[in-house]
Amino acid sequence: MVIKSYLHVMVPTFLSPQTTQFALCNGKVVTVQNPDSRAIVAGFHTDVNAQFCCFSPDGRLVAAAAGETAYVWDIASADPHLVRTFVGHGNFITSLIFSSPSSLISGSKDSSLRFWKIDASSADQAPITSVSLQARAGVAISSDQDGVVKIWDLLTGLHKETFQIPAAKNIRDGNGDAKLIDGRLVFAWYESGKIHIWDAGKKELAKTLDVPYPRGLRILGDGSKVILVHDKGIQAWHMWTWEPAGEVKLKDKYPYLDSLCTDGPRVWIRCKLSLAQEGWDFGVSGSSPVSFDPSTGRPHPDIMWDYRIKDTVTGKEVSEFRWKHQKPVFIQWDGQYLVAGYNSGELNILDFHHMLPQ
Asked: CATH number for the 13-117 domain, one of 3.90.190.10, 2.60.40.3140, 2.130.10.10, 3.30.470.10?
């Protein structure tokens, strides 16, 4: 989020995304005003001086950082009020941003980033079963167990479109994936011994393929192929023609797709037992899948499951990331954006360009 100053004043001033309101941090007082009439919409107090504010993407909430504490107020109701107070950092908060209308990210001088869930409005939603990050298109895509696919705007954190896939029900974790391909939403999932491909633009089932039981299913990052990982190897099919696009035999048992990697036609495989990692490129024209060294071929920093972000080139730990409430079940990362899906049905989008040290 780019913080903009509205007035040439001595106190920090912050505009809402819709530029319909601005917030002033004046000591221990945070004031929200209308930019045209200068009428005060709401006024709040903090325990120590507030350094800066930010608005939620929908303009309903305003948050302020004051010392080690983050405050969130509802400014859209008839009676503006404090919604949540978040305490947990060991030093001053240095950056603050909403990652969605219901979640907040704070960075601190204690070298940590924290994710704060503001409410439980998504508790009645079905668990997320896949996330897909397509930064070039400016979107992330999620699918859930009920076959609901949502397209999310990376910049605002708001969902743009929702699709109900009629035939997709009770999808297991990791056995579904969605991509925007040439502006068309395509959803692939496994059910009853088959891969099913749904073309949302045409609102029809494009294809079914007989396959072994999967340990992972994905549409490649470039949209060219559908990949299936099972106990004995990897199989691939060309998108639209459905002709076989290559097969790889794997020696280790219980392989699974590394969900962090989203690089074009490449696939990263990990083994649950030996923890060995393999990399395969399905995009080499006129050739069978080509193996590559996954430790050097990985295009982005590694995000360890203990939530410490580490640069794989220098080996230096970049930052620590702590989930406040629960561990995400699916993550994708491209070096700037991190998209995380939860069993609660919530999706969170983090933009590390504004959060990590430059």
From this structure: 2.130.10.10
